[in-house]
């Protein structure tokens, strides 16, 4: 008890600030890594670290202590190598949130019209069993993938999208990339996801949709050529077999202010309070 009081007496406001900063860093890192494969590994490393430390300090085991001192640093070096895609995605998410601090990106009438045209085109393509892959660019630039396709720079309309993905046209085999509210390119080549897909019937369009959302914050909409089903991908995750109403709701939700999606709700409210409460 006396030792605890001794520590409390020497506890200053700089110590509180130090602990708070470390806690915030851990919170942000864990929050950004949520939903990735790195989380279970991180739990395992923390468990091993705590177990090795307790055993080494309580029981004087020389060989075990030597093993702990040499294995744990190797694990810490191996984590960034093995889980490089997940860590890169988390850092990109953190960077996008930091760049958007204090910025409001509300929906406009042009965006609403674009989303309605995309939903209408998906309905027509689904009915005709024409495959399609539509990618919507957000903060992460997709110029390297735009350069692989045919420049369009046209207004997003359901008629144009249906025409592009008609099997009798030369532009149907590839992705349409939409930048802001205009079609930047068609027949673009996307990176394929290396993730395991349980359904072997999912083809290159679905793998391309997952691949582009794994490497960026883009949203990809896929229409299956074989079954006519509609899927949507974001952040390396796929929502399959959605109806038109849910498609419109998901697209509308993705175009909500980006800061509210990247940070917890209480942090978004704090931003609004500091910024005067208005958008």
Structure description:
The longest helix has 21 residues, at 38-58. The protein has helices spanning 2-9, 13-32, 38-58, 62-82, 84-99, 109-128, 143-146, 158-164, 204-215, 244-254, 258-262, 265-274; strands at 132-136, 150-155, 175-179, 182-188, 219-223, 230-234, 237-239. The chain has 279 residues and is an alpha+beta fold. Strand 6 and strand 7 form a beta hairpin. Residues 99-106, 258-263 and 273-279 have low confidence and may be disordered. The radius of gyration is 24 Å and the shape is elongated. Strands 2-4-3-1-5-6-7 form a seven-stranded mixed sheet, with helices on both faces. The protein has two domains: 2-99, no CATH class; 109-255, YojJ-like (1. It contains twelve helices and seven strands.
Quickly describe the structure.
By secondary structure, the chain is α+β, with helices and mostly antiparallel strands. The chain has helices at residues 2-9, 13-32, 38-58, 62-82, 84-99, 109-128, 143-146, 158-164, 204-215, 244-254, 258-262, 265-274, and strands spanning 132-136, 150-155, 175-179, 182-188, 219-223, 230-234, 237-239.
